[in-house]
């Protein structure tokens, strides 16, 4: 088209300004079938730039830029070109409007309380169409109707059925044309109406009967007891059963579910097959006294197998505390471990997370988990996220008090997840949404959200009185029939299932409950789906194990971990580190911290065990000491020596994580509760930042075994040490971890030498005990000239919980014994040597919990004559180990002696912000510790 003609045509077209949406629709139609658009539009599209000479597809970004430039040239006129072509464009606009905004007029609120204005874009008149056009045939473009043209009246009806029925589909925010077309195909081809036979409808009814029947039974048998009823959201039960059945038929072998309180008991009994008699005993207060503290029944997890057309599927409902959404990354971590064990990228294990409407919008960990969903370290092939949207959250009836967006699911748009809002009173629509959601996840390996819009028949718990805060809603709920009744009446009316048959199903379910029988036909006893934890149960800290390794083996490993291809040029400082490591391997230099740590990983990998490390700077190490990943300076490719030890080694992965503590730590906790073998490490960038993950430490890591019997061998490296870097770069809050220590629930270690870190990390794998390990790891000690070790010290294989005096000091001359942990030891040592003191002994306590009573007692045998004992720490007096551990030291020292404190005075902040003050304080505490009275 000549330039002048093009300009004139543009000025009389719909190209400019506000019409980009329908132009893109035209272009999509053109890509499907070039002859589906007019000759004029086809000539424009034909003239658009090709990509690398290809005539198959165009970059949409380039197309948009082209239109933007053309629009600038012709201004913002919107002038209709003649007659039928203009009407055709308007019809395509109408289709697009329903795809974009149909969900805003969908019938998704079972109570009919939502006050939603009619969307003008969905009305014919908004597009200059009228009743006079209803019998006119128009090309339907990419609308999936099975025919190229339709009468406008039929098309408009089909659009309303598809997008304004019981399913409100939000997906046009997605940028992938392929994914949008996939959803359009699934919805538009059947006008969002599920294609179900009588047997499938009966299964749905059974699910609703079970959901309703259990709640009524519990309400009658245990009136007033908390159960966080599912009533109103009953469709969750047939939804989950459909998800599991369909997943199993597509080859899934495991399903991991995470959910909070609402409906949990119902899911346990009616989906996972927990025997109802066990639940009734829990309501009656019966429990196994051999267990630890235990937990309330609506926090408990469960595992079982579920038979499907594709074979048995292993189900696991994760244990969950009252921190509503924190279970989400735990589930993802568990799924990642199972996938890694199976060598699968996502097909074999399915994560399902169930959210509350207020919680998904209000809890920040939801955003973090979405953000992790496609990251290398945390991907699980997509997840199905279900919102049990009872429209009221905790007690708030006004949505504007719980969120700022139109829907509680707005957060999902950050990862372009499709969102299917569905009316829970239409269980067939629920099943269709479920099928589409699972198939989307399996096809595109990405998250998908189902917003199950329902209601809550009772208060937040059964003792709550909801009318006090939501009078209008609960007046309506009292009159509203149950989902079971609504669906049974529908089936009876259409002749699918008679009312008498529905009554038989209700009676049969009640009979199962009365007899205490499993209510899930598909339940099967667990088979070999899960990893065997038996070797790790029933062990004590002092159980014998062989952690030795020969010096020759260490030398061989040292050579391997310090080598990389000559064709892989590295940055100059990194090269210096690796050159030094080669000297360490040759015995020409003592081993520093980075080398010893790397050798620990290598020794574990040589055993065939895996090593997984995540953290915000884990590849190189926050303090530039690890460099497990070598970056080619020419082409940015990477090489990992630890992945190239031998053909028989275990897998090694190290990932720089997303900038989060709570979700990443929760993920790694989930990983280690599903995988006892190997070494899993989470490393904080600075130990101070671990407080952002405090809920994970409090509710999972420190208490998961006591509450739920869940073993976990996760190792946490928390850089700790006072270097004058201020309040947020000094303290990992040692005192918080010691305060959480009880019942031998975890280890808290402060290694002070490279040999210690080597043996500590290997001990975590070799010793047949799986409990968390908290490490106050160093910063300045990474390069401290005294913090070095020999290969011989590494080969011993023993982590020393207590290290005694290393200098040539006669115990009989000692008048004072200083206890300490970590970096301050070297400052005490250097100052004592400078003072030439021979009457002070320094004893390092390298493990603060479980406290090494026997080892410390053995070390103090030679100091029974000493009267002065001091605990020295860098932290303020109200922090660090002093308050939590002093009773252990007092019990260890000889009778008639006393223990004093040397350290910073109590402080609200963990450290000062001025270097001069820091130096002054540090000198004072060292001098105080060494000052013999």
TrEMBL record:
An example Gene Ontology CC term for this record: oxoglutarate dehydrogenase complex
Entry EC number(s): 1.2.4.2
Membership in a protein family: Belongs to the alpha-ketoglutarate dehydrogenase family.
Cofactors demanded by this protein: thiamine diphosphate
Protein name according to UniProt: 2-oxoglutarate dehydrogenase E1 component
Domain called Transketolase-like pyrimidine-binding: residue spans: 591-784
Organismal lineage: Bacteria, Pseudomonadati, Pseudomonadota, Gammaproteobacteria, Alteromonadales
Family matches, as SMART domains: Transket_pyr (SM00861)
SUPFAM superfamilies linked to this entry: Thiamin diphosphate-binding fold (THDP-binding)
Naturally occurring in which organism (per UniProt): Thalassotalea agarivorans (Thalassomonas agarivorans)
GO molecular-function terms, A-Z: oxoglutarate dehydrogenase (succinyl-transferring) activity; thiamine pyrophosphate binding
């Amino acid at each position: 088209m000549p330039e002048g003609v093009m300009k004139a045509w543009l000025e009389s077209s719909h190209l400019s300004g506000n019409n980009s949406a329908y132009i893109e629709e035209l272009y999509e139609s053109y890509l499907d079938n070039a002859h589906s658009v007019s000759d004029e539009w086809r000539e424009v599209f034909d003239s658009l730039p090709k990509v690398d000479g290809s005539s198959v597809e165009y970059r949409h970004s380039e197309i948009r830029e082209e239109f933007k430039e053309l629009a600038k040239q012709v201004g913002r006129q919107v002038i209709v070109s003649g007659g039928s072509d203009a009407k055709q464009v308007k019809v395509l606009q109408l289709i697009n409007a329903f795809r974009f905004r149909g969900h805003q007029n969908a019938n998704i609120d079972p109570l009919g309380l939502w006050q939603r204005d009619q969307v003008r874009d969905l009305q014919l008149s908004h597009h200059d169409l009228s009743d006079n056009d209803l019998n006119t045939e128009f090309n339907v473009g990419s609308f999936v109707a099975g025919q190229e043209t339709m009468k406008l009246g039929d098309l408009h009806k089909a659009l309303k059925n598809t997008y304004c029925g019981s399913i409100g589909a939000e997906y046009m925010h997605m940028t992938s044309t392929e994914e949008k077309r996939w959803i359009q195909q699934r919805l538009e081809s059947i006008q969002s109406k599920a294609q179900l036979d009588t047997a499938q409808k009966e299964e749905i009814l059974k699910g609703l009967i079970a959901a309703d029947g259990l709640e009524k039974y519990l309400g009658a048998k245990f009136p007033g007891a908390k159960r966080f009823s599912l009533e109103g959201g009953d469709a969750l039960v047939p939804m989950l059963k459909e998800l599991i059945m369909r997943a199993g038929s597509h080859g899934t072998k495991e399903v991991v579910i995470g959910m909070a309180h609402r409906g949990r008991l119902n899911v346990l009994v009616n989906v996972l097959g927990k025997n109802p008699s066990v639940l009734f005993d829990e309501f009656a207060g019966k429990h196994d006294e051999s267990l630890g503290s235990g937990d309330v029944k609506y926090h408990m997890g469960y595992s079982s197998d579920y038979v499907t057309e594709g074979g048995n599927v292993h189900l696991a409902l994760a244990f969950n505390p009252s921190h509503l959404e924190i279970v989400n990354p735990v589930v993802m971590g568990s799924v990642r471990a199972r996938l890694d064990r199976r060598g699968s990228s996502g097909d074999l294990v399915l994560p399902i997370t169930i959210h509350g409407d207020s919680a998904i919008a209000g809890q920040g960990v939801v955003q973090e988990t979405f953000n992790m969903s496609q990251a290398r370290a945390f991907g699980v092939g997509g997840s199905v996220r279900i919102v049990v949207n009872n429209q009221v959250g905790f007690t708030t009836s006004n949505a504007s008090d719980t969120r700022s967006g139109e829907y509680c699911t707005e957060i999902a748009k950050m990862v372009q997840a499709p969102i299917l809002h569905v009316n829970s009173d239409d269980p067939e629509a629920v099943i269709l949404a479920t099928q589409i959601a699972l198939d989307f996840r399996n096809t595109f390996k990405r998250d998908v959200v189902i917003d199950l819009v329902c209601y809550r028949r009772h208060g937040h718990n059964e003792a709550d009185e909801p009318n006090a805060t939501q009078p209008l809603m609960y007046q309506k709920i009292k009159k509203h029939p149950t989902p079971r009744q609504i669906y049974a009446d529908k089936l009876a009316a259409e002749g699918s299932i008679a009312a008498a048959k529905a009554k038989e199903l209700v009676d049969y379910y009640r009979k199962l409950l009365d007899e205490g029988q499993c209510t899930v036909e598909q339940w099967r006893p667990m088979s070999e789906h899960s990893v065997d934890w038996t070797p790790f149960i029933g062990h004590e800290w002092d159980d014998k194990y062989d952690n030795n390794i020969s010096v020759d083996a260490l030398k061989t490993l040292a050579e391997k971990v310090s080598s990389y291809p000559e064709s892989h040029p590295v940055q100059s400082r990194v090269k210096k580190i690796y050159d030094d490591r080669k000297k360490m391997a040759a015995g020409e230099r003592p081993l520093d911290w980075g080398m010893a740590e790397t050798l620990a990983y290598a020794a574990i990998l040589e055993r065939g065990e895996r090593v997984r490390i995540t953290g915000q700077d884990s590849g190189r190490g926050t303090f530039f000491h690890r460099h497990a990943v070598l970056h080619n300076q020419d082409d940015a490719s990477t090489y990992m020596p630890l992945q190239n030890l031998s053909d028989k080694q275990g897998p090694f992965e190290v990932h720089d994580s997303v900038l989060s503590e709570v979700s990443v730590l929760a993920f790694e906790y989930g990983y280690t509760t599903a995988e006892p073998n190997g070494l899993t490490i989470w490393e904080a960038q600075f130990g101070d930042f671990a407080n952002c993950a405090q809920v994970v430490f409090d509710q999972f890591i420190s208490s998961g075994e006591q509450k739920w019997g869940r073993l976990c061998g996760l190792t946490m490296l928390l850089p700790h040490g006072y270097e004058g870097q201020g309040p947020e770069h000094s303290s990992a809050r040692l005192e918080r971890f010691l305060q959480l220590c009880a019942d031998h629930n975890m280890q808290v270690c402060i290694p002070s030498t490279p040999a210690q870190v080597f043996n500590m990390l290997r001990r975590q794998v070799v010793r047949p005990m799986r409990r968390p390990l908290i490490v106050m790891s160093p910063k300045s000690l990474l390069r401290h000239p005294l913090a070095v070790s020999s290969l011989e010290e590494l080969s011993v294989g023993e982590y020393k919980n207590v290290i005694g005096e290393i200098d040539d000091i006669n115990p009989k001359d000692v008048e004072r014994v200083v206890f300490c942990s970590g970096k301050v030891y070297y400052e005490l040592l250097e100052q004592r040597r400078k003072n030439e003191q021979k009457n002070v002994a320094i004893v390092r306590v390298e493990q603060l919990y479980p406290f090494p009573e026997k080892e410390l007692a053995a070390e103090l045998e030679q100091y029974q004559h000493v009267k002065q004992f001091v605990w020295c720490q860098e932290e303020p007096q109200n922090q660090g180990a002093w308050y939590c551990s002093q009773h252990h030291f007092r019990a260890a020292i000889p009778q008639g002696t006393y223990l004093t404190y040397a350290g910073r005075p109590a402080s609200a902040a963990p450290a000062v912000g001025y270097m001069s003050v820091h130096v002054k304080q540090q000198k004072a505490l060292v001098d105080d510790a060494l000052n013999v009275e």
